[in-house]
Amino acid sequence: MAEVEAAAALALHDVSCTFVSKHAPGQRYTAVRDVTLTVGAGEFVSVVGPTGCGKSTLLNVAAGLLAPSTGNVQIFGAPLTGVNARAGYMFQAESLMPWRTALGNVMAGLEFRGIADAKPRAEEWLRRVGLGGFGDRYPHQLSGGMRKRTSLAQTLALDPDIILMDEPFSALDIQTRQLMENEVLELWQAKKKAVLFITHDLDEAIAMSDRVVVLSAGPASHPIGEFVIDIPRPRDVAEIKTTPRFIELHAAIWAVLRDEVLKGYAQQLQVKATA
Ligand SMILES: Nc1ncnc2c1ncn2[C@@H]1O[C@H](COP(=O)(O)OP(=O)(O)OP(=O)(O)O)[C@@H](O)[C@H]1O
Ligand SMILES: [Mg+2]
After folding, report:
1. Residue of 38, 60, 77, 147 with fewest CB within 10 Å of its CB?
2. Are residues 56 and 144 in the same domain?
């Protein structure tokens, strides 16, 4: 067991995150409690769970942007202190700099790391995500899908060993989304980096992943199920959805997730009613 853990690209051990209320410092909210989660080198793991359960919180912990209240994080066997330099991060919200062109945005991280051939490398990545001719456009001159592609190029250009993605395609229409999911799978297949992918879309999680981890509704959210997705690759995310194995896995995971989604939804309504 110790050997397996040492090989993991990313390992969260008994991680809990408690937030103190800004308005009432006596009030605390434990978003996640005792979460143990690993992603092997080259493994694609998705985390699904109801809205507000703590998915982004866990990703922030993995990125080193948020220190857990208790527990620890190991990156390729070494304790994580500060920002995770081996990880690339694709945020839930739009994160392009509006004053930089698409090419400028992809170059930014490379320049920041002092990489000499930042421009050709950024150009190459824009080409790979299908935006070869759009490098001189500013974010507001790109469609939502193109902006996401730019973010993807920005993340992958840094060639991180671990890729952290927080619902990267949730704002896209279904066709663009499926195209991008297939593109990500193709790029991943070529390089086999460790991926921690957050989504609340179960179809997306199954279609993309080697393993799906289900989180309970908060507070004190934690993994309540883990499923190995034994569907062969390469996969086409749209096509595999009609295969018997996909349908079987979907039913099994949904049986665990369903009650949590209902609980999460009820909680949000409660919070709204008392706000
Ligand atoms: N900095 C913070 N201070 C206080 N509470 C926070 C903070 N960050 C997150 N929370 C709370 O922790 C819980 C988990 O939030 P998180 O953003 O991780 O959820 P999520 O699963 O990513 O939700 P969604 O699916 O809607 O993106 C929520 O109740 C949220 O309000
Ligand atoms: Mg989130």
Report:
1. 77
2. no
